[in-house]
Predict the structure of tRNA(Ile)-lysidine synthase.
Amino acid sequence: MLEAFQTYIRDENLFAETDKLVLAVSGGADSMVLLKLFQQCNYEFCVAHCNFKLRGAESDGEEVFIRDYCGEQGIELFVNQFDTREYAQLEGISIEMAARELRYNWFEELRQQLNFDYLVTAHHRDDLIETMLINLSRGTGIRGLSGIQAKNGFVVRPLLFASREEILAYAESSKLPYKHDSSNDELIYQRNIIRHQIIPLFESINPAFRKNAAKTASILKETAAVYQQQLNGIFTGLKVEGEGICRLNIGQLKALQPQQSLLFELLHPYGFNAEQVQEIAGALDGETGKNFFSKTHRLVKDRTELLITKLDLPKAQRYYIDEDCKSMNEPVSMQFETIAKSPAFRFSTNPMVADLDFGKLQFPLILKKWEQGEYFVPLGMSGMKKLSDFFIDVKLSIPEKESAWILYSGKKVVWVLGRRIDDRFKITRDTQQVFHISLG
């Protein structure tokens, strides 16, 4: 396998011998084989391991296993632990998606901190086929049907040439230790259903299904390249970039056929999804000044052009408030007071004031700007609500949303400053002390 591994790296031009690499290693057979192969090559690398805290002792055991192996082999190791369930709840996404976002965000952060060139993952040919079927079930374009790419930006996948069966055989013949992730057997996850039920059904129809599916993915990858060349010709003169602004001529956009499909190809690199593209297409004859936002870009409908600019996304600045703090002036003026609750106490209805149950607060409190995907329980409600939906309900403008400050206790929202406190921190008859906050 080592020779095939090195050949695939050269043929796909994944990275150079002088590049520095971060290897994502979970402890499973795939990633341990990846690590073993790199140990036999002359590359500079380190290992990164994620503990998602989803399987209790099993997750912790994998972390210990990786620490022991890397320690014995003299391999530089970085480990991060995540509260994946809480992140999934806060973001309103599945556990699978939460784990994916957490690991790739941290991997990229680590790669940049170390000034390394690429992140290396252990995805193999079976992963490619599974991804191809997942994308087919979701409804995808030609890129999705070509499965996983061997190189995508700073992420490289040098095991795509090998099947899961070949990787396991290599691990056994090399007497390589690895851990089995029991969650890979659970049929509550979409990928596992495809792996354990759907693909075997296809193989019962055609035993060569995996080989043929991988071949189809390769053909579609080449087809996608031809498709992109055609798109580049169609878009010549339509798209002008310079000084941080992408300009799309509305007159030329309206002449495109099929308009919505081609408009999607133009806008999806900027993070806009199919639903947003449909709205943008409908706004081409609409009012000037209408804004659309992806996670990374802002699109403004001007008189004759669509203007796309990158959003300024600085790291969130945090301000910490200790329980003995009396006041602060930056970034907003706030006064704090802890008082005993008396029978005559009445909490303030002034939106510029927050009366909170002191006993429910975790200090230091944190003040920072809100982030997409965050939830809270608005006072008087029993269910969670996205902050973004709350802002829509109270009719905040885009600048007002961008300037909103949120007070947190731990990772829970306590108060949308000047708007609404969280019901979980309200004053009740059991409250003994009141933490009184006033703005201004």
About this structure: The chain has three domains: 2-219, 235-310, 319-439. Residues 209-234 form the longest helix (26 residues).
